[in-house]
Write a structure and sequence with these properties.
The chain is α/β, with parallel strands linked by helices and about 280 residues long. Helix content is about 45%, strand content about 20%. About 35% of the residues are buried. The chain binds S-adenosylmethionine.
Length: about 280
């Protein structure tokens, strides 16, 4: 029997198929916009490329062995290999790993596991999380890195975090920023770089809002109208069977899922961290 696929994993697979169709892009991260970059659905592929280019500027050139946790389709790892780093990838998704293996040389291992379950005797100069820190329980990510870093090794995180705001907020995703800072400091990590790119990432959510409100919602309403008119019994039965999934779909039809809310509720950071000197 095939293994059950979790909702978030399926979401990534779905995103990959759509992004690949629209932009020939296999990157699974948000876009990055400068003040003069045009924000529209056609420019999203270029914005994802800018994200990768900007991220690569923060990868220490002297990091020989890199572990890319949550490597997605291996897009970032591929650039790192081309720059001469020795990279190992890690992700629990067989679907995404198959894509990663297509673009990476056979000498680049792709470990099919979660970070929580990953075991190895190897040690790394750099452990990176590119939009994957949010998937790993906070009590595991930073402690887990301590046992895998070489002396002098570093951790690079490029991801979204939740700010401490009342209520849930219209946009999901991200670990609590205040809890992350508490953990980071309690474990004795030094923060070597901290770049706030929230405003560069936020326009992604104006596109998300546009897609949700002006494409997905009308398509869904149309399908429901046609279904109810032409196959009333079947439509009613399907709506009942999938009622939980449909409730989740509703969150995409929220006009407040936009850049303004992203800036209000989230912070998107690039942080380069050094563990305490005692790390073996
Ligand atoms: C949003 S994608 C980011 C992909 C890639 N880093 C990029 O920038 O294109 C998140 C990645 O984290 C992986 N992931 C999810 N849960 C994980 C876990 N517990 N441990 C390690 N990776 C995980 C997913 O399979 C996926 O590869």
């Amino acid at each position: 029997m095939p293994t059950k696929i979790k909702g978030r994993e399926y979401g990534l697979e779905f995103a990959l198929i759509v992004l690949n169709f629209l932009y020939k892009s296999k990157a699974l991260h948000y876009g990055y916009w400068g003040p003069s970059d045009e924000v529209n659905i056609l420019s999203f592929g270029a914005a994802q490329q800018r994200y990768t280019d900007n991220l690569l500027k923060h990868v220490p050139v002297d990091a020989v062995n890199i572990l890319d946790i949550g490597c997605g389709t291996g897009i970032v790892a591929k650039h790192l290999v081309e720059r001469g780093h020795h990279v190992e990838c890690l992700s629990p998704s067989p679907f995404l790993n198959a894509e990663a293996r297509k673009v990476l040389p056979p000498s680049t291992p792709v470990h099919e596991t979660t970070f929580e379950e990953f075991r190895t005797d190897r040690r790394y100069d750099l452990i990176m999380f590119v939009e994957s820190f949010q998937y790993i329980p906070l009590n595991h990510s930073l402690t887990g890195c301590l046992r895998l870093l070489k002396p002098g090794g570093r951790v690079l995180i490029c991801d979204v975090f939740k700010l401490d705001m009342p209520g849930k907020g219209p946009i999901g995703g991200g670990r609590s920023y205040s809890e992350f800072i508490r953990q980071r400091d309690a474990l004795g990590y030094a923060c070597l770089q901290d770049v706030d790119i929230t405003r560069n990432i936020a326009p992604t959510f104006d596109l998300v809002q546009d897609l949700g409100m002006n494409l997905m919602k009308p398509l869904w309403e149309n399908a429901r109208r046609v279904g109810k008119a032409n196959h009333p019994f079947l439509a009613k039965t399907l709506l009942w069977i999938f009622r939980k999934e449909l409730l989740k779909l509703n969150k995409h039809f929220n006009p407040d899922r936009n850049a303004k809310s992203f800036i209000e509720y989230k912070t998107y950071r690039i942080q380069l961290l050094a563990p305490p000197p005692s790390t073996k």
